[in-house]
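Input structure tokens:
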């Protein structure tokens, strides 16, 4: 070692401010390296704090004020997928709202409405026929017998008309035969029109309505059942029932063709008793309906009864014979 070279001595530490970290001792210099003057640490008054390490000054990042959480934070938009597409929830909402109706959707909705209407009608018809489904075997047999009797009556009427046509064709005096048949037809039409009295086998139906619950539509149902069973002449109390007879609810009872009729209602019906009585006693028929209203119903068969209530013949205003 030469005399002009002096051995390296450690640099004494310099006093630093109280708010700064103490300086670390400098690293030993190598051969021929000039000593670097130590840098003075910041006093902390700037935007950040510094420290020394290995003779270099490091700057800390500036402190940023943290914003306080808002009491009413706005909802953040739902993030998208990494590829920019929407999430499943957003796709679902976009497909549902706003609603977009297409022609296939309208067609399907119309078909569903028609299907629902058909099901409702089917359920209603099933409920209406539930009375017959719950009927006893004896009642069902009686209803079938009544239908057979109606078919037989129609067949007999057909045979009678065919016989009249044959007589007209084979008779030597066709004019006299035609006159006889015309008179017989006039008597039949007079019975149906109520212009002549009638007699024959039949039944009487008596309805005692002390509570006043029997209405006009119930009596009309009884008339329709009797006509369907083959009734040829019907009289209620003193009023003859014909094709254009109408029923209405009155103050003290029921009005029939403008005549007020009070209870008890007595039906005098000419027809086959074996057909008329079962028609009224079918399950869910006239008798059961009246009994539900707490009306007393009685039916009697007769070998001969008379329907003598008459109606005046009225000339039609517009209809004329075409023959």
């Amino acid at each position: 070692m030469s005399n002009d070279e002096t051995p390296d001595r450690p640099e004494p530490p310099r006093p630093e401010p109280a708010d700064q970290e103490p300086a670390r001792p400098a690293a030993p210099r190598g051969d021929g390296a000039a000593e670097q003057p130590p840098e003075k640490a910041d006093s902390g008054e700037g935007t950040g704090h510094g420290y020394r390490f290995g003779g270099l000054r490091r700057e800390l990042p500036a402190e940023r004020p943290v914003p306080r959480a808002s009491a009413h934070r706005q909802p953040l938009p739902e993030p998208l997928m990494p590829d920019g597409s929407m999430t499943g929830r957003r796709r679902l909402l976009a497909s549902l709202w706003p609603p977009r109706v297409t022609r296939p959707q309208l067609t399907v909705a119309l078909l569903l409405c028609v299907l629902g209407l058909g099901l409702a009608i089917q359920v209603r018809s099933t409920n209406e026929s539930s009375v017959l489904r719950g009927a006893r075997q004896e009642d069902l047999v009686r209803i079938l017998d009544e239908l057979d009797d109606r078919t037989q009556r129609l067949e007999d009427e057909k045979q009678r008309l065919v016989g009249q046509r044959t007589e007209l064709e084979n008779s030597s005096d066709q004019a006299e035969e035609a006159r006889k048949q015309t008179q017989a037809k006039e008597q039949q039409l007079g019975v149906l029109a109520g212009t002549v009295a009638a007699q024959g086998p039949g039944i009487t139906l008596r309805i005692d309505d002390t509570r006043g619950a029997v209405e006009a539509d119930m009596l009309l149902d009884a008339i329709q059942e009797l006509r369907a069973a083959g009734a040829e002449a019907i009289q209620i109390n003193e009023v003859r029932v014909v094709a254009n007879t109408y029923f209405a609810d009155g103050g003290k009872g029921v009005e029939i063709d403008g005549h007020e009729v009070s209870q008890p209602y007595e039906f005098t019906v000419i027809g086959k008793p074996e057909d008329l009585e079962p028609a009224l006693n079918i399950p869910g028929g006239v008798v059961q309906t009246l009994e539900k209203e707490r009306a007393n119903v009685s039916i009697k068969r007769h070998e001969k009864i008379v329907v003598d209530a008459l109606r005046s013949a009225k000339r039609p205003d517009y209809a004329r014979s075409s023959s």
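The beta strands are 50-53, 56-59, 198-208, 233-236, 239-241, 247-249, 254-256, 259-261, 265-270, 296-307. Confidence is low (pLDDT under 50) at residues 1-7, 26-49.
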